[in-house]
Amino acid sequence: MVVKFIRNASVCTPEGETPSRGSGQGAIRSFRGAMIVENGLIAAIGPEEDLSGHPLLKCVDEEVDCGGQCVIPGFVDPHTHMCFAARREDEFALLLAGATYLDILKAGGGILSSVRRVHETSEGDLFEATLGLALSALSFGTTTVEIKSGYGLDTESELKMLRVIARVGRESPLDVVPTFMGAHAVPAEYKGNEEAFVDLVVREMLPAVKEQGIARFCDVFCEEGVFSVNQTRRILEAAKTLGFRLKIHADEVHDTGGAVLAGELGAQSAEHLLAAGDRGIASLASGGTIAVLLPATAYSLRKPYARARAMIDGGVPVALATDCNPGSSFTE
After folding, report:
1. Structural domain harbouring 51
2. Final residue of a domain: which of 27, 47, 72?
């Protein structure tokens, strides 16, 4: 047993066990306090005088005097695609020349470029690349990270990605939340036959991912030229039946009704939302869906930022994430 006593700290932390809404999102509790850590886990935290009689203080191995500096919770990054094999720097030149994100995807780049690289990369090499990014995030203060699959787009490769993501969670100090995103794009071989790919996701991929037992969430890219609202609904309803919690990449480029669908399905989160309108925001609020906003992606794509203030004023819980990915938001 290793016990650490962290004292003389300015402890700053949000409160509550459910997502805050409205003005409550800015509520932070702060106090002069201390923390007792046992084997890397917080055993007690509070005003220093309240911990003075704690039995673990009789066996402290290390005492840290913070000198009044802040102690805060680790950051939570709720949206990343950091399980990838290679960066896509060349696409920045295309974007600067006027190409759009969807133009690049239609030409076989973007997500589809990352899919080819994941197919070519061994599971061991993919793990090393993902672990490096996860540890980099940890070095900046992130302690919980969601990592999506979605650069496989076939059953075998998606399961490979999820195995890698689970291994990162086992072999790093981070809490890793795995998300299955087999419906991240339509593979080139299904172009013109998108419903057949939706069939594959629903009838083969989802049951295999359920049997594997790693992913906790299912996410779908609901966007023009990717998956329609009806296709997204079909995939997510099938996922919900299997016990997955739901996420949606919604209204990133166009207001397709993805945010409305997220609220209707009671999704845990709707993500991106750069083009979400008033109806979508109202649906998120009524469905209790968290809006996960990704400002670095809007900056990289040179798009207007999501309407965060309207969402907060409308009672939508709002979270921020990096969207760490190899092309449109290479962030840590």
Report:
1. 3-72
2. 72
